[in-house]
Amino acid sequence: MTDMKTPRRRQLLKGAAVAAGAMSAPMLATAQTAPVSFRFQSTWPAKDIFHEYAQDFAKKVNDMAGGRLKIEVLPAGSVVPAFQLLEAVSKGTLDGGHGVIAYHYGKNSALALWGSGPGFGMDANMVLAWHNYGGGKALVEEIYKSLNMDVVTYLYGPMPTQPLGWFKKPIAKVDDMKGLKFRTVGLAVDVFTEMGTSVNPLPGGEIVPALDRGLIDAAEFNNASSDRILGFPDVAKNCMLQSFHQSGEQFEILFNKTKYNALPQELRSIIDYAVQASSADMSWKAIERNSTDYAAMKKQGIKFYKTPDAVLRAQLAAWDKTIAKKAGENPLFQKVLDSQKEFAQRAGQWQNDYSVDFKMAYNHYFGAKKA
After folding, report:
1. How far apart are CA 251 and CA 54, in angstroms?
2. Does residue 318 register a pLDDT over 50?
3. Which secondary structure element, helix H or strand E, spans residue 251, and what is its range?
4. CB atoms within 10 A of CB 217
5. In what order do the strands lie in the sheet with 181-183?
6. What sign does the CA torsion over 317, 321, 326, 331 have?
């Protein structure tokens, strides 16, 4: 009797399961969170590769979120000026944004330490390592809290070492910097001021027009691709490569904290991993695009020079005076410096001891042949 009833019991259970599934499907659909749209603004002109990086990040989030979250990225100035991004995101005027943390330097000088200066010998990727694993993330959150900024911040995308800048005449010695009307941002303002330049911290989209009209004599921005797209080769013919003023910078992605915290955990995790993926992708794209644009500018007659070592050493000396002054004025500045220095001493020794001289291999294959 029991054996004869078993198949029927199984059929009844199977039917009940199917019916339960059919009943629960619409309930699950109605329980899902409605699609969310975030309006972002970058601090870059639409034509700049930096704005493209912002769009790349948004696309990764949008693709992985499958319609549940959509980030729309607007170029600089669409809603607020570039240097007002932090306040706009904090207040909810914008849901988020893409820029660099050094742009907030005027609110707390310590924020410029995520990029400006030699970073105790750390390159941009090492600064990011310090940020994510050496205490930097907690420190920047502490600074934003002290400023009453209601934001969630992500740093990503280690930038290549930035050139000293674009000049009407090549820089041959330290005295050549004195008296120049020069564009830079962050703590580099203080470094170049210490070196005798007259600094104007213009946002990216205003630099080339200012150079063209003679409002400034020289300027730095960031990289070969941005410099070429923004039109630097049209207004200056000499670019000085290598500098310590912004040798370890990275991008910042901001979210309004209230709106970010309202997202389901799954969407917040998608954002977390999209930041990591974008960091790697940006690094790879930068190598491809920067090297291509560097070669193109050389072909069009732009002259590139290595910044003299005397100028680099003068930057380091000016940096030491700058950080000593700022640390005396701002306890958080000293706190960030201490954290960076501890990490850099250990990580820097490892990197310097382990890394091979890749220039040796490059010259072996591509260097000038000996007679």
Report:
1. 9
2. yes
3. strand 250-256
4. 19
5. 198-199, 181-183, 218-219, 165-167, 238-241, 303-306
6. positive
